[in-house]
Amino acid sequence: METSPDPLPSPPPSADLSPPASPLPPVPRPREKGPRPFVRRHHWLVRLAHWVNATVLLGMIGSGLQIYSAYRHFGPRGATYALPNPWDGKSLPEWSRLGGWLAGGLNWHFALAWPFVITGLIYLLFLAISGEWRSLLFRPRDVGPAVQMQLYYLRLRKDHPPQGKHNALQKAAYTFIVILGAISVLSGFAIYKPVQLSWLTSLFGGYELARYWHFVTVWIFVGFTLLHVALVFLADPASFRAIITGWYRGRYPSHG
Question: Do 108 and 63 form a contact (C-beta atoms < 8 A)?
Answer without folding.
Answer: yes
